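Please, structure for the following, as tokens.
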Amino acid sequence: MSNGELSNFDLEGRLSAQRQVLAWLLARTITSPEALSDLKSHLDQAIPPRDHQEDPGAVPDDGYAPLAAAGFEVRLLLEPLEHKLSERRVQADK
């Protein structure tokens, strides 16, 4: 784009690359359940509860959308770590 704006394809590609790098870094730095718990505690301030549990009758508005998207993205990054650490714990218990 000539005006310096990125296309949706460019943004998607950049975000995908950043997500891959971040997932790789997290997989190598979060190596214990305690470290994962610490990270979740740190992030918990900014991540909205699932299903709007703080007010079940509320309908989220547009101002809530970026926060909800960020929370969803964090969960997508952390769920594989939880699975990996859980598998390690099962293997260690054998």
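The mean pLDDT is 84. The longest helix spans residues 65-93.
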